[in-house]
Design a protein that fits this description.
Largest sheet: 5 strands, mixed
Radius of gyration: 15 Å
Number of strands: 9
CATH superfamily: Peptidoglycan recognition protein-like
Strand order of the largest sheet: 3-2-4-1-9
Strand content: 5-15%
CATH topology: Lysozyme-like
Shape: globular
Helix content: 25-40%
CATH class: Alpha Beta
Number of helices: 6
Number of domains: 1
Length: 187
């Protein structure tokens, strides 16, 4: 499986430093400008999901996002522009207070990474869905047991996490599935 996280850091560089200091790891980071950094070979287990079964069965990405609205000015001062404000995001049956979301360029980078991971490792372009076909917004036992095959958020692993609330995987994964575009065009 592939696990999406937000890093609650201001940049991929600061995320990498925090991970090293805490003795945890992740395979990829997506920075504010959409740059994807690989920190660990996908053949190695990363310690990113807080669950050894999931860690051994997954590849993970940290998407740069300080989360708290008090950091909006920092992003603007450093030339990234205003971050989207996500409201009414529900996870584990609770509606979250408004928080900073991902830039469009980060979502496009995530989709490019997902395509590459799907093509290279065969991870299915699926996410946990309910009987209505909507993405599940709480833990999933098949995920926690390490048996799910597809793309998930950290909150699918444990009730102790809320990342990446508000980021519905279903539509972006559908776009990746139907698109043959393998990279982001940069002018």
């Amino acid at each position: 499986m592939f696990v999406n996280h937000w890093d609650v850091c201001l940049s991929a560089e600061s995320c990498a430093k925090v991970l090293a200091r805490r003795g945890v790891s992740v395979h990829f980071c997506i920075d504010n400008d959409g740059t994807i950094y690989q920190l660990l070979d996908t053949q190695h287990a990363a310690w990113h999901a807080g669950n050894s079964k999931v860690n051994r069965a997954s590849v993970g990405v940290e998407i740069s996002n300080a989360y708290y609205t008090k950091y909006q000015d920092w992003y603007e001062r450093h030339g990234f522009g205003e971050r989207p404000l996500w409201t009414d995001a529900e996870v584990h049956g609770k509606t979250q207070k408004p928080f900073l979301g991902f830039y469009d360029v980060q979502i496009e980078a995530a989709k490019a990474l997902w395509r590459a991971i799907h093509d290279g490792l065969g991870i299915p372009l699926e996410c946990p869905v309910d009987s209505s076909g909507d993405m599940v917004t709480t833990t999933v036992s098949e995920v926690a047991s390490g048996k799910f095959k597809g793309f998930i958020h950290h909150f699918h692993v444990t009730r102790g996490k809320i990342d990446c609330a508000g980021f519905d995987l279903k539509n972006p994964l559908d776009e990746v599935r139907t698109s043959r575009k393998y990279c982001i065009d940069k002018e």
